[in-house]
Amino acid sequence: MVMRPDKALNERRAEQEKALLAQIKAPLAAEEKQHILTDNIDYIYSEHKGVDHFSWNNTYTDSMVLEWMFSKRRRINGIVEITDTSKYKVMDEMETLHFSCSIDTLDVVLSYSANLGYSCEKLGKYSSGIDSIAVNKTELQETPLAQFRIQLINDMDEIIGTDYTGQYKVDKETNGAPWLRYYSSNGKFTLIDKTHLNLMFNTLDVDDELLTLNIYYKYDDTVNYQMIFSDELGASFDDHAITLHFDTLPYGNKARIKFELSDGVNTVTDSTVTFKNPNNKPSSLDIEHAQFKLYPNPASDFLSIQIDGESDSAYYVELIQLNGIVVFKEKIPTSYKLPLKGIVAGSYLVKVYNEREFMGNAEGVVK
Fold this sequence. Notes:
By secondary structure, this protein is mainly β. It has helices at residues 7-20, 144-151, 194-201; strands spanning 23-29, 34-38, 40-41, 51-59, 65-76, 79-90, 96-104, 125-128, 131-134, 159-162, 167-172, 178-182, 187-191, 204-205, 211-218, 226-233, 236-237, 243-246, 255-262, 267-269, 273-275, 291-295, 302-308, 315-321, 326-332, 335-339, 346-354, 358-366.
């Protein structure tokens, strides 16, 4: 005969169930007072990328059978993929449950951890050395905050732009860290590369919630963050281009950027990305660099490009739609006519660079 757990047992386990995110199932055998406790632990997050493990310990006053279902879940382009499902069981007259499993966190980069900043101890937080993994409630898996945290800017090596006095470029150091190369004391830079826009936002499925994206910056750790961008994002969106404006970037300091996403109730903040000046030169210096002229503008047949300056390395031009799609790319001489046959009328970003240096951007209009 199958019986439900008695009321007293439920009361004793109330806090334990809340911490373990578990559901009490019917007893296997009433006379043995054994019960199955099942938990889907498929929402994990780890900063450390490599092989790791986590453990779960809890004490019970009654002997029972405890069974855990562990699987890895990823959401890619709206499709949920569940892999590597395993069962772990502790049998009969064990007062202390010790649950552990090995995880290759390289495989779970897109797994979700909802409500970051929330005290995960209530939900289960596990540490191994310097690393930690959090187990979260099932219903939080689909939240936009979870997706935002994992998919926000992995690489920022294609963020470029100009202002009226100079150029900016974000490159990567040999160790992969991004930094901002700048040639002037103020201005802006714009995200224009579609690939990296995808890395920044990808596609969020946020049901009916209205999200607000806030971006902050500061020069060093002795000052507070200043908001430089805030925009309401709809219930769903794809690539999202943003122009960031800066004040003076003082010599020797770093510009640190912080991204924050909020649904009005919960807020998640991404790890900051630090930019630094690799040339270590005052921003007021007149750094020699090639520039280019673009004419006629608007144009219908050709856009003529005239590069001011010479370089030992080859020049390249890209014609980029405002959504980040590159429609034309070519190796060019210092004087070049960009053919517009087959190019849809509209505004485009014209990007000129060589293997050593970014030359600048200009807006070209095709009529």
